[in-house]
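Limitations
The structure tokens in this dataset are predictions for the assembled complex, not deposited experimental models. Users should treat interface geometry with appropriate caution, especially where small molecules or nucleic acid strands are included. An illustrative entry is reproduced here so readers can see what is and is not provided.
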Amino acid sequence: MPEIKTDDVYIELGKHPKAGFATDDMILQMGPQHPSTHGVLRIECVTDGEIIKKATCHIGYLHRCFEKHAENVMWQGVIPFTDRMDYLASMGQNFSYVITVEKLMGIEVPERAEYMRVITAELQRIASHLMAYGTYGMDIGAFTPFLWAFREREYVLDLFEKLCGARLLYNYMWIGGVSHDVYDGFAEECMSFLDTFERVVFEEFNPILTYNKIFIERTANVGILSPELAIDYGITGPCLRGSGVDWDLRRDDPYSIYDRFDFEVITGKGEMGTVGDCWDRFMVRVLEMIESVKIIRQALQQMPEGPIMNEKIKKVIRVPAGRVYGRTEAPRGELGYYLISDGKGRGPNRLKARSPCFSNLSVLEEISRGCMLADLIAIIGSLDIVLGCVDR
Amino acid sequence: MVQGEFVMTIEEIYKKLRKSFGGTILESDLEVLEPVVGIEPQSIAEVSGFLKNEPDLKFTSLMCLSSVDLDEENLQVVYHLHSMDHNHKIILGVIIPKNAAKIPTVSGVWRTANWHEREAFDLMGVEFEGHPDHRRILCPDDWEGHPLRKDYVVQEMYNGLPVPYPKEEDD
Amino acid sequence: MQSVNQYFLNIYIAIKSVLIGMSITFRHLFTKSVTVQYPRERLPIPGTSRNLLLNKIEDCIGCDQCVRVCPVNCITMDTIKVFPEDDLGLASDGSKKRLWLPRFDIDMAKCCYCGLCTYPCPTECLIMTDEYEYATYERNDLVFKFTDLDPIQIAELKEKDHIRSMEKEKKKLETAKQAAAKPGKNGGKSGEGT
Amino acid sequence: MIQAEYYNIFVKIIDQLAVLDFLPPVWKFILASVIAALVFFHVIAIFALVAIWVERKVAGHIQDRLGPMETGWHGVLQTLADAIKLLIKEDIIAGGIDRRLFVLAPVIVFMTALAVFVVFPVGENFIVSDLNIGILYIVAISTLVVPGIIMAGWSSNNKWSLFGAMRSAAQIVSYEVPVGLAIVCAVMAAGSLSMQTIVESQAGGFWNWFIFSKFPFGFIAFFIYFVASLAEINRTPFDLPEAESEIVAGYMTEYSGMRWSFFFLAEYGNMLAVGAIATTLFLGGWQTPISLLSFIPGPVWFTAKTMFLVFVHIWLRWTLPRLRVDQLMYMCWKVLTPFAFVSIFGIGLWMTF
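Predicted assembly:
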């Protein structure tokens, strides 16, 4: 595809080289209040009719300067802020932060707490991917799968509410353990949910949306992201795996106790079109939910008895001086926290969050060039961004 | 993907870098948890290109690019690199003075650095020379100051609107 | 020939997938709905739920831990050190109360329901209840005031505290002066006790 | 003056009223026409109220929820409440728009939806005007919706509106072709352009309906008509002109309150219209499927068949995603149109031999 320069785009009226009569490109401000930008994202599209010549992202509408906040609260006070980063996958965000702090403090977490963390993080991955499934269907124009996905997601949120008292912003994983032990019957409820969920994915979600011909036509061969481009742009998570790169931090850079579980890393195979198109990214998410189900099943069976908090953790947490970068596979990709402690303050001296959505969104300009307006919506949806995570 | 035999320890990578670049690689303490290899500011782009393209290093992915307010005088830009082919990691750190915070861009090496550098510029005020799209990213274009600096004072008014949260009146 | 086959295959797949989708949605027309009619039916709230904060003020010893840990600064607490002649009694866990609490306000409009404040509370007097419907017309009505002292008492206490701090100040000054004048000798006994 | 046998049902009623004997026949005819127009306006309005409620209930139950439940029994009055809300809303006309076109556009769109109702044979003697070119009249009138939508999109001075209008114009004009060809199939089979004659030629049981009697060509023609008519009235999966997730609300973006509800009414009026046309052309109109059930009057059959088709519209809407512009055109020109020609050819052969 030829490189489009700004000079070409803002070409003088009436002097378009390819047209015999006066034409001009239209600049379309998509957002910040647009139904399909998944929050407050503004995309400045230079369009030729319905064809996008250039789509520039303008982010920051949801910027709260979380990193500055984190410098002014206690170590455990950062956790509620991490919840609010990616508000659809709060457990994953908590997980990443607490294991980074624990790495810096050099403490161990009780076995039971590790299992609880894995179970909740994987349940959260299911909930988050369900949301991605539903909103993607809605971007393409199907409304019903959205509410069905929400129905299943509600069951996960119900489990979380019973477990820790909150439905969306959990503050569940604490430094040194987890805040609540499981209630009686959690394992049974979880298992029964997983059984119905697996059935629902294969009997309802896949036939109605994933293998619908219109949906395939809309998403296959659209927004192709080659593996080299994906790695170059720092794309992680399902988007990277959708491009066929076999990379999952849970397996390749294991943290917590993920090395004890047996699961597959799903990659895009170009089943309906080219490897790395929107359909592949979507399908990776659908199949990852099934892999998460496997992990939760194993974890529930293996979960030992014991304490859920490290006894050495005091009410006022002291962290030794040092720097550490911890990363986990959050539902949307590699979530990293770079923490600097000076050993004196009550909170982090500097916290940098490397959010997956931030890097994932940056590729939009590259892969949306030359597509149609409807395809742009499909591409944004398939990248599955959360603006709270992009803007922090 | 993982090829264990190529994994290099941080010491080996450090030695290799010292051999190729000599003095621009600063003396670094490699004993601490996650050691940072110090680099001279002007040579960061070259070192990055070397790290990415050298066959037995292959640092294809830039995990994270952070800017740090080090002390009164200095800022630091920290690069977390990771090789998907060989599964080894390195952390580079570049220290630059606050009053002349300029550093060559690495967005030509890893394109993910594009937005991360814009963020570092926006929030910490590090200027990246040669960056293709050097604008603020998160704050509005006409915002004053760089919020993540420790000495940052929030501006009183922005486009005629008061910025700081109004102080509660004691009843 | 290939493309002709593909053309008919595509039409066949399209019609088939539409019919499959329609059969699934038709089945759902008759399944039971999963929603509840909110104001009339309510889902049970689990015991762990984190909603409105409540402080059992008679148990509060004013240790300030909740204020320090709160990430959004929604708790405001004023304390006055107890006077020697007063006895505030014991908290339910047996620890002695040493502080008057003329002010313990929680601004629920700021609260982020993280529950961090309830964890370090030594007497477990600050809890999160399952009350979740407390919408108000005024934002100030969301500031919950928990002190059990009436305004007159608070004014008196503040006055007393002021006098005490003034005297302390005076005493300190005197001590410093005496220490400067006659090092080693203890003085200023007359200033003690009000 | 119009011939006596084409006098519509309203003219007949007014003729029989002794009270109105003092009026000259022309005035009686005008009075009858006005009454007819009012009646059909209310038919559309009431149908729209019911259809919106049905749509919401069907949507709710398909999505495992209940839909409106508060106003009246299972929310039957919800649409009425919404209508009242829309009526009393502030009439917002944004700055920088072409006022006259903006005001006129919903009227034109609604009028076209209303005008096609004149020729629907609801029962044996129940038709407002049995024009001998009835079906041609429908095709001609329904095309008038395009200028209305373009006016709405252009006058709004909004890029999304313009996108919606252009998409809609392209879509409606293209899909006129398969619609017209599918109609031609029925016209060829019946040998008449009159709606009443088309229905009468399908008498005597459901196997005589054109959808079954000329199998498979009748069925293909019906299928093409049904799919293409979905596109004509901008329903899912062809709802690109108002695709919420892409172009906000298309040509309706700047409209609110009363004017917006006219578009809304027109959409449901159009649903009823295409349902009625499909019923008339392919499903035997008011004819009973089997003679055993002939005690049920014709209008009931007509309404039932139309409602079933409307239900299928609703059902499809809550099942399918949306096509893209180029795929829409592909479907029109490369799938529906060739098959329509095949079915015309087939029916032609059938009629010859």
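Some entries come with short summary sentences. For this one: The mean pLDDT of chain A is 85.
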